[in-house]
Design the sequence.
């Protein structure tokens, strides 16, 4: 069950302009809450595997080595000095460097001649302090060159969606150890996109729980939970929808490039089409869940209105029943003197006057209840209208 304050627990925020208007292109903006920067080197080939933490870019030696692929994973964007040294070492364009540092950016792909920039958003669905679901959206920047790939992540915490790719490299599974750097870029991008599937499966379970809760016992908390879930789906959509456009534009550009000079070979282009198909599937799932959540909100509002109508109906029936009873009690509460005239409420001196008045009230109330049931206003009607009997 989603918590009532789920809306405030989403870690993704709407993007805001960080740099001052008119600032120099390529200017970094390091937020005060940025995590400390650390670098992990993973260099591999068919018979080579080197993995270690480094503190200085100079420890890399050369950016690319014959027969090897260099993957530098940069986590945390706080140390501007390290980030600038990486930019100089790999000769990354200042605009591309600023895009990976000044997060969040819209998912996109851009070519700078000697290297290719890819911006994607990584989604992870975890559990909050009280076991409630918590969505985390994080930007991942990939810069691909000849023989090397540099990834930039906002968070320095281990346990990202790229870990399966690292395991494939360590264990030598598949063709990744025998493929160039563009295949590594594809594998990383594919892992980011596939990371949406577990998050959507979890949100699908929550949607089913909310549907049962909405139909059986809707409470004000249910409405807040549905609204929070709709916002979460909107965040997911904003993270993956531009990726479809970016991949589509990238494949069009690759088709126009010369294969001999392109950074992405023809073999990898086929796999990029598969990533594009996954993006389309994720977008379709998100749109389906958004429609489901919107209809669920309508069902919730209808349930609340129906419940309110039932309450109003009960109160109206009670008021209607007591209206004639109040009239009878009011009549016998008038101050008439029976001794002055035989027509002045002679039953006041009758021995059975009080039981008569009470019985009259009970008879009127019972008759009204039977009439309400007959017309179907309460319970099951005793006589269905013509053409509406059970088939």
Sequence:
């Amino acid at each position: 069950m989603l918590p009532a304050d789920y809306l405030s627990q989403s870690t993704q925020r709407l993007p805001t302009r960080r740099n001052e208007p008119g600032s120099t292109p390529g200017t970094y903006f390091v937020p005060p809450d940025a995590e400390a920067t650390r670098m992990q080197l993973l260099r591999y080939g068919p018979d080579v595997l080197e993995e270690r933490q480094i503190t200085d870019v100079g420890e890399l030696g050369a950016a690319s080595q014959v027969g090897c692929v260099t993957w530098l994973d940069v986590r945390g964007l706080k140390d501007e000095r390290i980030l600038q040294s990486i930019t100089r070492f790999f000769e990354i364009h200042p605009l591309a460097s600023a895009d990976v540092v000044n997060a969040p950016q819209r998912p996109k792909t851009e070519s700078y001649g000697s290297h290719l920039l890819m911006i994607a958003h990584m989604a992870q669905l975890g559990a909050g302090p009280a076991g409630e679901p918590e969505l985390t959206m994080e930007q991942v920047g990939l810069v691909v060159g000849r023989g090397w790939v540099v990834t930039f992540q906002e968070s320095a915490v281990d346990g990202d969606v790229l870990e399966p790719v690292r395991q494939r490299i360590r264990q030598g599974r598949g063709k990744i150890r025998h493929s160039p750097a563009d295949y590594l870029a594809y594998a990383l991008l594919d892992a980011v996109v596939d990371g949406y599937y577990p998050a959507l499966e979890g949100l699908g379970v929550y949607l089913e729980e909310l549907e049962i809760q909405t139909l059986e016992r809707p409470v004000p908390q249910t409405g807040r939970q549905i609204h929070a879930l709709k916002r979460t789906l909107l965040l997911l959509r904003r993270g993956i929808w531009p990726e479809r456009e970016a991949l589509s534009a990238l494949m069009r550009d690759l088709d126009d490039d010369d294969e001999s000079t392109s950074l992405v070979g023809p073999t990898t282009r086929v796999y990029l089409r598969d990533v594009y198909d996954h993006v389309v599937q994720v977008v379709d799932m998100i749109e389906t869940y958004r429609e489901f959540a919107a209809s669920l909100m309508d069902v919730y509002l209808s349930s609340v209105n129906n419940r309110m109508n039932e309450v109003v109906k009960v109160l109206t029936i009670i008021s209607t029943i007591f209206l004639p009873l109040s009239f009878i009690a009011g009549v016998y509460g008038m101050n008439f003197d029976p001794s002055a005239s035989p027509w002045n409420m002679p039953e006041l001196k009758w021995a059975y006057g009080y039981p008569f008045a009470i019985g009259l009230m009970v008879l009127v109330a019972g008759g009204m209840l039977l009439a309400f049931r007959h017309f179907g206003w309460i319970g099951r009607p005793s006589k269905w209208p013509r053409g509406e009997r059970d088939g």
In short: The beta strands are 38-44, 49-54, 69-75, 108-111, 116-127, 133-145, 148-153. Confidence is low (pLDDT under 50) at residues 1-14, 384-391. DSSP finds nine helices and seven strands in the chain.
